[in-house]
Amino acid sequence: MKIAFHGAARTVTGSKHLITLKNGKKILLDCGMFQGMGRETVPLNQDFGFDPREVDIMILSHAHIDHSGLIPRLNKLGYTGAIYCTRASKDLTEILLLDSAEIQEDDIKYVNKKNKREGKPAIEPLYTLDDAKRAVKQFRGVNYGEWFRIDPDVEVLFTDAGHIIGSACVHLRIKEDGHVRQITFSGDIGRYGDPILKSPEVFPQADYIIMESTYGSTLHEDVAPGDEALLRHIEETCIGKRGKLIIPAFSVGRTQEILYALNRAQLAGKLPRVDLFVDSPLSLEATQVTKSHPECFNKTVAKMLEIDDDPFDFPGLHYIKTVDESKALNLRKEPCVIISASGMAEAGRVKHHIANNIDDPKNTILIVGYCEPQSLGGRLMRGAKEVHIYGDKHEVRAAVGVIRSMSAHGDYEDMSQWLACQMPRGVKKLFLVHGEYEVQTVFKEWLLKKGFLDIEIPERHSEVGLG
């Protein structure tokens, strides 16, 4: 049995891990899109590093595009098998992939208009809306906490990862040569004490672990100061400077967390009177899906539902649906908060909002989650004085704020707590993925001190045999 790491290897996006059994069958864990990798992004997403026609089974940990975003391309290039995930992930991933396809088609139209003017050849999207519609028919929703068979020699268990609605850690029991080995894939590990979701669950002893390490050298701030910082930015920008607060936020997870925090602030009488716009049809759909899976909520949210039938809505909140409504926000002179996807500011309507508001010092761009260093959000976080958006240069005159505590990823203490149910010497090998290499080396040393004996940080497209 072998594992090949075709994405999220010494980087944070593009999650793809391919298990090849001794009998030749291939199981793909995640099929994520690379995001925010600069000029490398397009070629990385075009070439999987393996033949999709040779994959027998696919398992998806959760809906985020860096874990699911290339599934339509996988189908387009020949994969026709089932895709197993939790029921909530099935619902979320379907709307995310359809939205991703629409964004690609729209962005390609914009780029090709410019290419035509400059005499350059037209380019094609990674996949179309029709490709995405075909791919979502392959999804199979499964419950948490129940072993199910995907092959005569392979069983799978999903446990709650606490990262976003429907997120799961994937556990495989694989029988070869009369021996059963268990492989655990963490997906993305959430935070213990998340304001909305249940905490990550314990899981059976594993022989091999493929583990994310995004914040392997970081200890997050408490969530409460993050809520307070959000209110402070609204007060300073919208009330103090009479400007606009632009918040790039992932449609799934981060947007709902912000809305939940603002709803609590409103109930407590702390929310300033200002219009708030969620400019993302996908965010509206994702919020509806979130509401439809209360089984994923923690006890605090369940108790709030007894007094508030919608913890993600409050007076002054408006959802923007049409392109014309979105464009009208750029003409608006009154102060407001605009929450829009994507979280790294690499695609979608938020890029237009940033482009139209970045040169005004009254405004603030507030980053509330992880951004790849080369992404637009990452460059703003690092203090860039100039940025290029859709090929045009913009001087950064708006303030740039960062709230690091509003992360759906656990820090090194959360990840250590996730591993606490394991006997370190019982784990034959632990692979660190989904992290920047410098961070991973720090986390590796931390885990060695915890008693894990064999830890590897694989390179992209490397393949490792399992004993």
**How much beta, percentage-wise?**
15-25%
Q: What's the CATH H-level homologous superfamily of the largest domain?
A: Ribonuclease Z/Hydroxyacylglutathione hydrolase-like
Shape: globular
User: How many alpha or pi helices?
Assistant: 14
Average predicted confidence as pLDDT: 93
Distance between the termini: 8 Å
Q: Level of helix content?
A: 25-40%
Query: What's the number of domains?
Result: 2
Number of strands: 22
Radius of gyration: 22 Å
Query: Uncertain segments of ≥5 residues (pLDDT<50)?
Result: none
Could you name the CATH class of the largest domain?
Answer: Alpha Beta
Structural class determined from secondary elements: alpha/beta
Domain Metallo-beta-lactamase: 13-227
Organism: Chitinophaga niabensis
Keywords: Hydrolase
InterPro entries: Beta_Casp, MBL, Metallo-B-lactamas, RibonucZ/Hydroxyglut_hydro, RMMBL
Topology:
Layout: E1 2-7, E2 16-20, E3 26-29, H1 41-46, E4 57-59, H2 65-68, H3 71-76, E5 83-86, H4 87-117, H5 129-136, E6 139-142, E7 148-151, E8 154-160, E9 168-176, E10 179-185, E11 208-212, H6 223-240, E12 244-248, H7 254-267, E13 275-279, H8 281-291, H9 299-304, E14 317-320, H10 323-331, E15 336-340, H11 349-357, E16 364-367, H12 376-381, E17 386-389, E18 392-395, E19 399-402, H13 412-419, E20 429-433, H14 437-449, E21 455-456, E22 462-465
Helix pairs in contact: 4-5, 4-8
GO molecular function: hydrolase activity; RNA endonuclease activity
InterPro entries: Beta_Casp (IPR022712), MBL (IPR050698), Metallo-B-lactamas (IPR001279), RibonucZ/Hydroxyglut_hydro (IPR036866), RMMBL (IPR011108)
Organism: Chitinophaga niabensis
